[in-house]
Amino acid sequence: EERRLAEERRLVAEVALMEAEMRVGEDSNVGGASAGVDVETPIRRRGRVRNRIRGDMRAAALMRKRELWLYRDKRIVGPIPGVYVGDVFLFRMELCVVGLHMQIQAGIDYLPKSRCSNGEPIATSVIVSGGYEDDMELNDGDVIIYTGHGGQEKNSSRQICDQKLVGGNLALERSMHYGIEVRVIRGMKYEGSASGSGKVYVYDGLYRIVDCWFDVGKSGFGVYKYKLMRIEGQAKLGSAVLKEARDIKKSGVGKLLVASVWKLVLMVAFAL
Predict the structure, then answer these.
(1) Is the CB of residue 124 less than 8 Å from the CB of residue 116?
(2) Are residues 72 and 191 both part of a single domain?
(3) Which of 94, 99, 152, 207 is within CB 3.0–4.6 Å of 228 for a Cys-Cys bond?
(4) What is the domain-level CATH number for residue 37?
């Protein structure tokens, strides 16, 4: 028991270090739909409640220690080799392990100015999952009005103060200035999801930031907004395919299709 507890404490320290190294200068309110990522899950044992590290965090920490994370040191701007539009990830930590989005909590991932040749931060990816009340999607997801990070009430999408043009917000603005595309991942509620958030994460391809402005949000505070347009010539949005599958499952059409196929098979069999 003592050995197991010692190992768990060590993993807690590993996870804390992992989060600190991946925070890349974000302010304390990293915001975004991701701000509520729980490292520990409360469990009950022998009448008392204690915390246990989530399984995906434990696995990611062990993989990190054994240097199995992809592109950890060589951060990639643009598409990730081996990751395709429509790929679905059951846990957010998977995005970190494959190099798609290296932030555990922040919705905006970026290279800090210290790692960029021009001395300015550059955004690499964003997660869109409804974490901000001012987010919008147009043209079936091909256009996104994305809200910057910061200024949110804890564990809420409501703004309580103005945002600042720092960290990920500045990186998105600089990416727009230089015409650098960003990867977009959508977090979607999905029945049967294995994660505590009830979401799965779908890679929807590359978008270009075409506009940026400071506006008064729904809560009356200033927010940075970015207009993202999907680059043409890519495969169909993975999130759209997943929504269609989810709708078919809910409507019962899927069962009818299966029944029709079996009926056709039996008709052919009897005909032969």
Answers:
(1) no
(2) yes
(3) 207
(4) 2.30.280.10
Q: Which of 46-50, 112-116, 184-188 reaches the highest mean pLDDT?
A: 184-188
Same domain, 213 and 247: no
Separation CA 37–CA 63 (nearest Å): 19
Total residue count of the chain as it appears in this document = 272
The string over 117-127, giving b where at least 16 C-beta atoms fall within 10 Å of a residue's C-beta and e elsewhere, is eeebbbbbbbb
Domain check: are 133 and 193 in the same one? yes
Neighbours of 60 (CB within 10 A): 23
Cα–Cα distance measured from residue 191 to residue 64, given in angstroms and rounded to the nearest whole number: 30
Spatial separation of the C-alpha atoms in residues 86 and 188, rounded to whole Å: 13
Number of domains in the chain: 2
* CA–CA gap between residue 79 and residue 87 (Å, rounded): 13
- The whole-angstrom separation of Cα 175 and Cα 177 is 5
Q: What is the pLDDT of residues 214-238, one digit of tens each?
A: 999 888 999 999 999 999 999 999 8
Boundaries of domain holding 102 = 2-235
